[in-house]
Amino acid sequence: MAQHPRTQAIRLQTERTAQKEHATPLFLTSSFVYDKAEDMAAAFEDDTLDVNIYSRFKNPTVDEFVNKIVQLEGAEDGVATATGMAAVFASFMTFLSAGDHVISASAVFGSTHSILTKYLPKWGITHSYFDMTKPEEIEALITPRTKMLYLETPSNPGLDIIDLQLVGDICRKHNILFVVDNCFATPAVQQPIKYGAHLVLHSATKFIDGQGRVLGGVIVGPKDLVYQLYLFIRNTGPSLSAFNAWTLSKSLETLFIRMDAHAANALALARHLEGHEKVSRVKYPFLPSHPQHAIAVKQMSNGGGIVSFELKGGIDSGRKFLNALQMLSMTNNLGDSRSIASHPASTTHSKLSEAERQSVGITPGLIRISVGLEHIDDIIADIEQALQQS
Ligand SMILES: *Cc1c(COP(=O)(O)O)cnc(C)c1O
């Protein structure tokens, strides 16, 4: 019987070396040696051979990290990248050609939006955006050149949820590659392949690392598609470093227990904020007031670690709130053991016009909290005193 994913996240490990190490070893080496000239020749003859050549191609520590994500996501195979954005870019570059069309949710990560709008057009690849809350409008956007549908659920920072099964069915019907950025949920909470996603990718920098230390990315899916991604990454170079893979693989040992704790703290915070005199709206997937709560409960095992809320006082209140925080960190990362607050309208999304911000759900007083693992009473106390000054 296959082990439970919780166990696999802890026990999957590179084959023990002659040193009899207990914790996983770190293979910090650029290249690998051969016993005979014939072995070296054979290694280069066939790209599909499972042999260590050079760490841009493959490395045992990186393989260990990838194998764990493959198991947790219920995929066939996977490949790692240096960052989450390298995973996004590799997915576009590997499967899209001049003249092709991508359909994407409008609420995608800022740099993904930049690739779609600033870089892909240079190679004649066009895109259409749909609203996460209106999946019924997706089919009308499909053209004969539509190759890929791309989305994140929950979205950042709006925390909109889309029905993965519904989108998966549309993609199957029209023979479109369905790609999901599963960074906000992690495979401990949601496995999009179950609902028809072909490729699932991650910024491993966030909850997978979970302690704000290293950058990394990973893409998993069917063997034939992953092989094409592998060749793109092997030849163009955005490979994951062995050190970062080692850090991330160790992090996966605590992924499930951390996600449970992030979600418990996040739900408690969301409940505290709902109905608060300074707050007009709270969004958290597992609050019954979330517009897509029923879908969230269907496809996620908990609500994840991100809560957003709207300050009644708008943009000025947002700045005051951030300045008044004493414990929560003001930083751009998320998915850390330390709680983090951000105010998208005055920071990450300040360059967008008001209309563009509205279209991706960023209202003037929107605050995003990446709820950490500190004691919930301390998280609430800091947010409460900052709210009083906002
Ligand atoms: C951070 C993030 C990315 C980009 O990942 P990096 O590791 O920073 O390159 C992509 N998608 C989502 C949803 C993210 O939060």
UniProtKB/TrEMBL annotation:
Recorded metabolic or biological pathway in which this protein acts: Amino-acid biosynthesis; L-methionine biosynthesis via de novo pathway; L-homocysteine from O-succinyl-L-homoserine: step 1/1
Q: Which UniProt keywords apply?
A: Amino-acid biosynthesis, Methionine biosynthesis, Pyridoxal phosphate, Transferase
> What Gene3D superfamilies does the record tag this protein with?
Aspartate Aminotransferase, domain 1, Type I PLP-dependent aspartate aminotransferase-like (Major domain)
Which is one Pfam family of this protein? Cys_Met_Meta_PP
Q: Which InterPro entries has this protein been placed in? A: Cys/Met-Metab_PyrdxlP-dep_enz, O-succ-hSer_sulfhydrylase, PyrdxlP-dep_Trfase, PyrdxlP-dep_Trfase_major, PyrdxlP-dep_Trfase_small
Question: What EC number(s) are associated with this protein in UniProt?
Answer: 2.5.1.-
Record keyword Membrane present: no
Residues bearing PTM N6-(pyridoxal phosphate)lysine: 206
Question: Catalysed reaction per UniProt?
Answer: O-succinyl-L-homoserine + hydrogen sulfide = L-homocysteine + succinate
Cofactor needs: pyridoxal 5'-phosphate
Sum up the protein's function in the record's words: Catalyzes the formation of L-homocysteine from O-succinyl-L-homoserine (OSHS) and hydrogen sulfide.
Sequence similarity: Belongs to the trans-sulfuration enzymes family. MetZ subfamily.
Q: Its quaternary structure? A: Homotetramer.
Name of protein? O-succinylhomoserine sulfhydrylase
> What organism, scientifically named, is this protein from?
Terrimonas rubra
